[in-house]
């Protein structure tokens, strides 16, 4: 089984998250995609962060594809760091091939994440294009440091077969919707 791991605060979840999910499911040939709704992001202010249970409920109402599973297991791990979460997932799911899914907008600050190089060495990574971030894969610390591990997007369907470090950048339709813009507009509720 091939599973994508898509972490974030989903504060609130929106159609842009669904678009990233659709691209990942199709282009990476995933069997499932786990939305890992995080308790919080250590690099972002907790001001305006909706309660975890509310973000989970909004995500469950938004998701229609049965291959997308909304999870919040990171809360039980005792820490908010992706490296720790991925190590936990890897240790407890030996028979599953995982791919870490991230938006290109995260590349700008990825080198600030705790143990970011460990993250890159845990699972293959698929970076999904986001508006205003298309060129970030050319200049980010991650992509420069791990340039040798780049997989052409035409081979993305076989990314799960590559040992980490391995990463690809997927171009495709992009949504201008962001959780930040939705919060600022006061439109925190997805379709019900």
From TrEMBL:
<keyword id="KW-0520">NAD</keyword>
<keyword id="KW-0662">Pyridine nucleotide biosynthesis</keyword>
<keyword id="KW-0547">Nucleotide-binding</keyword>
<keyword id="KW-0548">Nucleotidyltransferase</keyword>
<keyword id="KW-0067">ATP-binding</keyword>
<dbReference type="Pfam" id="PF01467">
    <property type="entry name" value="CTP_transf_like"/>
</dbReference>
<feature type="domain" description="Cytidyltransferase-like">
    <location>
        <begin position="5"/>
        <end position="183"/>
    </location>
</feature>
<dbReference type="InterPro" id="IPR014729">
    <property type="entry name" value="Rossmann-like_a/b/a_fold"/>
</dbReference>
<dbReference type="InterPro" id="IPR005248">
    <property type="entry name" value="NadD/NMNAT"/>
</dbReference>
<dbReference type="InterPro" id="IPR004821">
    <property type="entry name" value="Cyt_trans-like"/>
</dbReference>
<comment type="pathway">
    <text>Cofactor biosynthesis; NAD(+) biosynthesis; deamido-NAD(+) from nicotinate D-ribonucleotide: step 1/1.</text>
</comment>
<comment type="function">
    <text>Catalyzes the reversible adenylation of nicotinate mononucleotide (NaMN) to nicotinic acid adenine dinucleotide (NaAD).</text>
</comment>
<dbReference type="GO" id="GO:0016779">
    <property type="term" value="F:nucleotidyltransferase activity"/>
</dbReference>
<protein>
    <recommendedName>
        <fullName>Probable nicotinate-nucleotide adenylyltransferase</fullName>
        <ecNumber>2.7.7.18</ecNumber>
    </recommendedName>
</protein>
<comment type="similarity">
    <text>Belongs to the NadD family.</text>
</comment>
<keyword id="KW-0808">Transferase</keyword>
């Amino acid at each position: 089984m091939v599973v994508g791991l898509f972490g974030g605060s989903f504060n609130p979840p929106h159609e842009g998250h669904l678009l990233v999910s659709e691209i990942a499911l199709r282009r990476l040939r995933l069997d499932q995609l786990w939305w890992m709704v995080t308790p919080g992001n250590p690099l972002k202010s907790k001001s305006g962060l909706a309660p975890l249970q509310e973000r989970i409920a909004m995500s469950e109402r938004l998701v229609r594809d049965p291959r997308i599973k909304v999870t919040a297991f990171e809360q039980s791990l005792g820490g908010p760091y992706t490296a720790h979460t991925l190590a936990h997932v890897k240790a407890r799911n030996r028979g599953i091939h995982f791919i870490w899914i991230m938006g290109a907008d995260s590349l700008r600050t990825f080198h600030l994440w705790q143990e970011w190089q460990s993250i890159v060495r845990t699972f293959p990574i698929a970076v999904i294009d986001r508006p205003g971030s298309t060129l970030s894969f050319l200049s980010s610390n991650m992509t420069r440091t791990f340039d040798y591990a780049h997989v052409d997007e035409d081979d993305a369907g076989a990314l799960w077969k590559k040992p980490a470090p391995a990463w690809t950048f997927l171009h495709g339709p992009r949504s201008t919707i962001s959780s930040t813009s939705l919060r600022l507009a006061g439109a925190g509720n997805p379709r019900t």
